[in-house]
Amino acid sequence: MASKLTGTVALVTGASSGIGVDAARQLAEQGAAVALVARRKERLETLAAEITEAGGTALAVEADITDRDQAEAAVRQTVERFGRLDILVNNAGLMLLGPVVGADPREWERMIAVNVQGLLHTTHAALPHLLKAAEEGPRQVADIVNISSIAGRQAWENYGVYNLTKFGVNGFTESLRQELAGRHVRVGVLEPGAVDTELGSHNNATIHAEMLDPFNAQHERLVPADIADGITYMVTRPRRTAIAELWVMPTDQA
Ligand code: NDP
After folding, report:
1. Which of 10, 17, 40, 153 could make an SS bond with 87 (beta carbons 3.0 to 4.6 A apart)?
2. How far is the CA of 18 from the centre of ligand 1 (A)?
3. What does the alpha-carbon distance between residue 124 and residue 75 come to, in Å, rounded to a whole number?
4. Predicted complex ipTM exceeds 0.95
5. Crossing angle of helices 68-82/119-136, nearest 10°?
6. Is any atom of ligand 1 closer than 6 Å to the C-beta of 195?
């Protein structure tokens, strides 16, 4: 049975854990061939095997997207293998929290490298293929979905540079949306509230004890599939409909 994304190819960054895993699963269920991009290759291969077993098509692509050459190579490998690229999900991300005063600037650089520069690298490499897909592809439309955050809409103390990166993603997304609107490449941003993933795990014990653990104890967080639902919704709209922004929150998160 033909599904909504039959004949398309999607590339998902950050497909080795959390939101990216379920995004890849759902896009594959809809019929897209999916390139799984991240650094932890074993995990990508396990997911690719699972998707293949379920009747889908997937390719594990090991890449550190902070390195422009590797990001470009990931896009190239995808197009070489599947012949095209219709959908880019810029999902890879890093969140390191804490005060600005006394911060280790290397943590800021790591966040900016993944959340901003990595997203730019994959977007730049993918655009020629997406423009071609919008002209010649089965759907006559192509998609970029950028995974931002509620932290791209609201700023909080101790979220400083994470806020900076996600506000930046929102601004870049809207600018690119306007640039590409007439060429039928849809560019949208999805802003999740709290989701139960590995995202917080890279923070130190103090941040866990003072910020993350108390928050998690008080709220029922979303599961990654909830955000994957949103991504799938955005990329399966009719050609005439572009979801420019989707803000998905846990019901009990103010
Ligand atoms: P996870 O930590 O579970 O996943 C992050 C993914 O990014 C991993 O697959 C990781 O793979 C990948 N990644 C990190 N650095 C790189 C890199 N240099 N090159 C390639 N891939 C990289 O977190 P989530 O699933 O929660 O995060 C996904 C997105 O959702 C992020 O952009 C995050 O900011 C956003 N988000 C998450 C929220 C949450 O509450 N969880 C809320 C709002 C937004 P690997 O380490 O194998 O490279």
Report:
1. 10
2. 7
3. 10
4. yes
5. 30
6. yes
Nearest Cα to Cα of residue 230 among 143, 117, 137: 143
How many angstroms is it from 78 CA to the middle of ligand 1?
20
pLDDT digits (tens, 9 = 90+) for 207-250: 999 999 999 999 999 999 999 999 999 999 999 999 999 999 99
Structure-token pair, residue 54: 């379920």
Could you read off the pLDDT of 174-191 as tens digits, one per residue?
999 999 999 999 999 999
**Domains of the chain with CATH codes:** 9-248 (3.40.50.720)
Q: Is any atom of ligand 1 closer than 6 Å to the C-beta of 119? A: no
Classify 11 as helix, strand or coil: strand
Closest alpha carbon to 22 in 231, 242, 169: 231
**Does the structure show a pLDDT above 70 at 1?**
no
Element housing 26 (H / E)? helix 18-29
CA–centroid distance, residue 24 to ligand 1 (Å)? 13
Which residue lies with its CA nearest to atom 17 of ligand 1? 64
Q: Is the CB of 133 under 6 A from ligand 1?
A: no
Give the pLDDT band (50/70/90) at residue 2. low
Q: How many CB atoms lie within 10 A of CB 246?
A: 17
The answer, yes or no, to whether any atom of ligand 1 lies below 6 A from the CB of 200, is no
Ligand 1 atom nearest 202 alpha carbon = 2
